[in-house]
Amino acid sequence: MHAEFVAVDWGTTHRRVFHVGAGGMVLAQRSDDRGVLAIGSGGGDFAGEIAALRAQTGDVPLLLAGMIGSTRGWTEVPYVAAPAGLAAIVGGIAHMPDNVFIVPGVMVDDDKRPDVMRGEEVQILGAHAMGKVPDGLVCLPGTHTKWAEISLGEIMRFRTVMTGDILAALKAGSILSDLLQNEPADDAVFLEGVDHALDMPDLNAELFSVRARVVTRRMTPADAASRISGLLIGADVRIGLGRERADVVTIIGAADLCQRFALALQRAGRESFCIDGDQAFLAGAVAIMAALAGAPR
Amino acid sequence: MHAEFVAVDWGTTHRRVFHVGAGGMVLAQRSDDRGVLAIGSGGGDFAGEIAALRAQTGDVPLLLAGMIGSTRGWTEVPYVAAPAGLAAIVGGIAHMPDNVFIVPGVMVDDDKRPDVMRGEEVQILGAHAMGKVPDGLVCLPGTHTKWAEISLGEIMRFRTVMTGDILAALKAGSILSDLLQNEPADDAVFLEGVDHALDMPDLNAELFSVRARVVTRRMTPADAASRISGLLIGADVRIGLGRERADVVTIIGAADLCQRFALALQRAGRESFCIDGDQAFLAGAVAIMAALAGAPR
């Protein structure tokens, strides 16, 4: 059990705030663009931000997750090494003054394939607490897509594919910029891109080929964004599945992005089901607060 | 033979101008940032730019190559379909008023793998005219690296890998931006990235892993740019070589970039030799002007 609290998923560019009642019910929820970069890396006035939050929510415990615990955030909370489950993650929480708790990230402590996450671990713990993550592979699509292997509720290892970040960079400034002003809209064209990328490891050539298709009138500019999305997500899924034999993949995130990954996974012969990212975060925050309440100090 | 002329390699962001004497000797050479985007796509004052060039060089024939012949340039000159050699490319030249000639680009007219180039065809023809391109594979590294198969001086087919464009986009805005403010400086770290990318088709995960290496203190921020360069160029070479059995690859371009690609090709078990890009362009322009002078109108 836990008392009333506020949980914040505090990312690089955005922040989601959940005010949770003692029974686990959400009293209020909002999101804004006060990510850590907006507040100012390192030297930013995070204490002022916390005070502003408290002014709205009252003097309740505050659970912070995400980039807020990174070198770019308020204070650096060391990563917990995988395998890591609820107990290890709660054990790594930084106890700050005034009932503020910062969740640690998780790292894969492997010289050949090191990796890090901050924030997604709460969603994974939450999906498990909801009874919705069987052992196997979990995918959290996004700016930095995470593919995590779960066993008995522990994050065994994971890998990041920077799909959304690369898409945004290509949109901001590249030969594909103007084509990416459109939104992906055609599932058939999207799936052709997925199929290609699942099969062929030549992404940086196929991306240019989208421009060539448009210039040689083989593709309309409107379809280009769908193919680019398909190529990037197809490559993401190919890398994420790796040598995994998982028949079923759990996808955690926003509905529209989950659906695109579900389509791509289907083409790769995998079943999948989707869990809402906010719900998973909330369930994870509740599980962490309950464990904190029961844990020895 | 040809009379005195001016050749311009007129790209998207830059322009290189060569004033060539009747014997093929360069009378003057300069480069500036008056690329087609600076002048204004489509509706830009290209006639004014031409007049400004002529004011400096005198009233001699003007040979223009590159993006100047694209939809973003002065006037669209249709691509010549590969296979294409000197005769086909000269046959596709647009004859404009006042002794201005615009070289067409070359396209791979293939629904499965369409591709386009504008400007590189002059360098390839030039390298061949210099007697320096045996049949086989030619690599022109850069913003959009070209890998072309040459047979008897004809461009048979080619493929583009958008390596430099993606690197610039990642540098301008991504999780890797701050790490890319450094220049690649360490060849050993560069080659580790090359080796990985030649072997493993997981580029968009390995790129994020560079950040993870830095965050977990496995790599210094100063080394990160070398590894990222190695990963991108290694992937470029892997895609460019494809199923090619070519033992020797001709690289055409600027010395520093050619050297990085030569190192990567060496790791892939290929010999290579480098041809300066300006010299190749110049030789190609001379060959085209000679053919134009001898060709029926």
TrEMBL record, chains A, B:
List the Pfam families.
Answer: DGOK
Question: Its domain of life?
Answer: Bacteria
Protein name as catalogued: MFS transporter
Q: Which GO terms describe its biological process?
A: D-galactonate catabolic process
Question: What's a Gene Ontology MF term here?
Answer: 2-dehydro-3-deoxygalactonokinase activity
Q: Which InterPro entries match?
A: DGOK, DGOK_C, DGOK_N
Q: Which organism is it from?
A: Sandarakinorhabdus glacialis
